[in-house]
Amino acid sequence: MTAAGSTRSALATDAEFAEFQGHLNLIFSRARSMWKESAARIHPELQPSGYKLLMFISRVGSSNAHEIAERFEMDKSMISRQVRMLEDLGLLESRPDDDDARQRVLTATPAASEALVELRTDHAHRLRRALAGLTNEEITAASKVFRALSEM
């Protein structure tokens, strides 16, 4: 390849990378909007940060403040405030850990779990509609990209 060809190739790669970054920014923006919308559907006073914690706890079945703080790279005091808010809204239950009395086991309430199942179903339908024009190979490739990004 000539120097001119190499420069054109690098420019094309830079442009493609910039386009990828732009789309990624739009995805993040849309995700923030969806978290806000989803939080409001669960409870009008629920904030997106509380929604994300509730989703995590629901997905793993149960958790404690220490695990959540590590997962979300948040200060424990901030987690405590979120947990208290979720409990006050009737979305989270807390009980002493059988193995470590210093810890509390956190689980989503039945009402929260039901609302989250409804939201997940709704989100799955939206995602299927958005990806309807892609082949299985394209979806597999996209999944590979998202996996790589999630492991950064």
What does this structure look like?
It is a single chain. The chain is mainly alpha-helical and 152 residues long. It has one domain (3-150): Arc Repressor Mutant, subunit A (Orthogonal Bundle), CATH 1.10.10. Helices cover 73% and strands 7% of the residues. It contains 6 helices and 2 strands; from the N terminus they run H-H-H-H-E-E-H-H. It has a two-stranded antiparallel sheet with strand order 1-2. Strand 1 (92-96) and strand 2 form a beta hairpin. Helix 1 (3-42) packs across helix 2, helix 2 packs across helix 4 (76-88) and helix 3 crosses helix 4. The protein is elongated. 16% of the residues are buried. The model has no long low-confidence stretch (mean pLDDT 89).
At the fourth level of CATH, the homologous superfamily is: Winged helix-like DNA-binding domain superfamily/Winged helix DNA-binding domain
Strand content: 5-15%
**CATH architecture label name:** Orthogonal Bundle
User: Got a strand count?
Assistant: 2
What is the H/E order? HHHHEEHH
- Secondary structure class reads mainly alpha
Low-confidence parts: none
Write the layout of secondary structure elements.
Elements: H1 3-42, H2 48-60, H3 65-72, H4 76-88, E1 92-96, E2 104-108, H5 110-131, H6 136-150
Antiparallel strand pairs: 1-2
Helix pairs in contact: 1-2, 2-4, 3-4
How do you describe this structure in short?
The protein is mainly alpha-helical and 152 residues long. The chain is 73% helix and 7% strand.
